[in-house]
Amino acid sequence: MKILVCISKAPDTTSKIAFTDGGSKFDENGVQFIVNPYDEWYALVRALELKETIGGTVTILSVGGTDYEPIIRKALAIGADEAVRIDAAESDSLYVAKQIAAYANGKGFDIIFCGKETINFNGSIVPGMVAELLDLPFVSLANKLNVNGNTATIEREVAGGEEVIEVNTPFVVSAAKGMAEQRIPNMRGIMAARTKPLEVVPAAAAEAATSVKSYSLPPAKSGCKYIDAENAGSLIQLLHEEAKAI
User: Please, which of 112, 185, 190, 235 could form a disulfide with 227 given CB 3.0 to 4.6 Å?
Assistant: First the structure.
């Protein structure tokens, strides 16, 4: 089975967030970047489990500059066979999806895995765009996936229960929590990652559909107010007068 896993970088959740250029750009100075957890913990690890069970190869794909290469090597250390970096500055979701689709088109991938979203943008739209551009079936927010021959059985949570879907390869799937368990790269994997192939390909001709006008930080959290258990009237008054504004 030939599997493609799309990965992105994301700021570590402990990073201090700031913006430059009048609030129009994220300030990356001093920020520690990691592999987006949904891409690493769920999409990549499940792809590796499938390879180990039924055979095949796992290729990871990123859209970005040379600053992406440390996280690509991390994914290789976890167990991916090879990596591709599309040499393009990150833009909007449609631009990224077009780059992924242009690379994947005609290469015979049975499954294209993506994380359900990135933790810095939370858009959850790139996987669906990739599927549309490649004219492939798409299953979103999957938390279980098993393959038998060329048919995959996928489970996902829906309002009020679970949904079970069968789809034939090739297809695109976005992975959510439950798809797999996080793997920690061992020393052997880290050493092997240094020599695994990392192909750099030029960006396909494409234009972004949107641009960022400005970012803004959420309001700072206010202090907590503690009300004596015997003073229900004050609590009710605060709920009426202040809680609505939060």
Answer: 235
